[in-house]
UniProtKB/TrEMBL annotation:
This is SWIM-type domain-containing protein.
Amino acid sequence: MIKTAKRYNVSFAAVKLSSAMKNALPIWYHLGAKRRLRLLNNTRVSDCLRERHGVTYVADLLGLAHRACFRAARLLSNDFIPSSCECAECRTDASRGCRHPLGCCKAAAHLLEQVRPKWHPEFEPIPDGLTLTSKRIEANAVALESEGETIFDPTLTSRGPVMEAVRVFVDPRVHDEPPAIRARSGRVVNDEEVTAY
């Protein structure tokens, strides 16, 4: 089965991913990761993240990277992270056996930095204007029930479970490329720099 999948270039190949789908992707050996993330998969910190914090998916990392105590410590200093914290979340992590909860938060933020923009959960691409309006979506639902004609939905964003975005005959060279964006109609005027005194 694996040989057949390789022969026909079966791959996870969504053009654009919804936020829910980005969050549902596994973080370890992530498809859209830089090489550095693959090196970080087997370190002591990553073992702690897996075993004590239960990190499996991208969404699990977001909770650690956006923890209030970690963000407050990061505002005070970019590099130095205190060794202890008395918040409820850090105490819970310590009771599970984590020696440095804020260090794990820092590691989670670093792991998220290794995910390319197309796959990053906090990156919002430019809207392509291809999604149907809510009225047309409702009209499609009614048409499906009455076996009428539906309007084609040209959206490029993959929604739903991760397995919905697996494709066959995928060109592996375009795996990480951002989606093409429809040219905007009318004149596009670039912002001009103005100096005011």
